[in-house]
């Protein structure tokens, strides 16, 4: 599956480099929401077929919040460290890392707050987080734990990286993955201005 994903990525890059209007690409892009919704339905069906899964979710209680809180704190802390390494302003660096993989929102929001350069950095760095986590999930699942897979994916664990979670983790972990992605995605619009407020000059 990793090699298929890599092949799809390279094919996408080739289509972008060729430019022009390609009917197949236009059709695929216009149906991206449909594909995502079908994926979510298939996840729901797969989870529903597992007996006792609702009881297991209820057993988590507040423990289900541990992963998204850890992802949020770890991402912002990583941005602070990157500020010291790269020399980027602390508020921008923390905000960029606080996007947790949500590159579309991060690029636009940070670009509006700090200009096009930082908006571009936010877009590319969070896109790279999504891509790297997509390809690293098999290794993380094998050598670390499902929680590490979810943490690496960040806000994308409920959508784009979910197929890899389905492939390499259990149904129970997929439920936690969707929950983590939903919570992290809800945090991002609040976290970006909060980072500017806390770390801004």
Polypeptide structure, described:
There is one protein chain. The mean pLDDT is 81. By secondary structure, the chain is mostly helical. The radius of gyration is 18 Å and the shape is globular. It has eleven helices and no strands. The longest helix is centred in the C-terminal third of the chain and has 29 residues, at 171-199.
Number of helices: 11
Order of helices and strands: HHHHHHHHHHH
The end-to-end span amounts to 46 Å
Biggest sheet record? none
Q: Which percent range describes the beta-strand content?
A: under 5%
- Mean pLDDT, to the nearest integer, reads 81
Report the strand count: 0
What gross morphology would you assign? globular
Please mark out the parts with pLDDT under 50 across 5 or more consecutive residues, or reply none: none
Roughly how many Å is the radius of gyration? 18 Å
- Helical fraction equals over 70%
Structural class, by secondary structure, is mainly alpha
Brief write-up:
With 201 residues, this protein is mainly α. The protein has helices spanning 2-18, 23-30, 32-48, 53-60, 66-86, 90-97, 103-114, 116-143, 146-153, 162-168, 171-199.
List keywords for this structure.
single chain, 201 residues, mainly alpha, 81% helix, 0% strand, globular
């Amino acid at each position: 599956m990793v090699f298929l994903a890599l092949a799809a990525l390279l094919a996408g890059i080739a289509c972008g480099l060729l430019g022009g209007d390609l009917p197949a690409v236009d059709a695929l892009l216009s149906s991206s929401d449909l594909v995502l919704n079908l994926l979510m339905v298939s996840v729901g069906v797969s989870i529903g077929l597992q007996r006792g899964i609702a009881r297991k979710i209820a057993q988590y209680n507040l423990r289900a919040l541990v992963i998204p809180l850890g992802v949020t704190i770890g991402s912002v802390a990583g941005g602070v460290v990157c500020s010291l390494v790269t020399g980027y302003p602390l508020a921008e660096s923390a905000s960029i890392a606080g996007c947790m993989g949500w590159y579309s929102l991060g690029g636009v929001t940070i670009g509006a707050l700090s200009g096009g350069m930082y908006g571009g950095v936010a877009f590319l760095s969070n896109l790279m987080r999504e891509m790297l986590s997509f390809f690293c999930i098999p290794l993380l699942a094998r050598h670390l734990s499902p929680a590490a897979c979810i943490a690496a994916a960040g806000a994308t664990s409920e959508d784009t990286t979910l197929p890899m979670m389905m492939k390499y983790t259990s149904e129970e972990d997929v439920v936690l993955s969707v929950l983590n992605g939903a919570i992290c995605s809800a945090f991002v619009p609040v976290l970006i201005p909060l980072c500017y407020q806390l770390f801004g000059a």
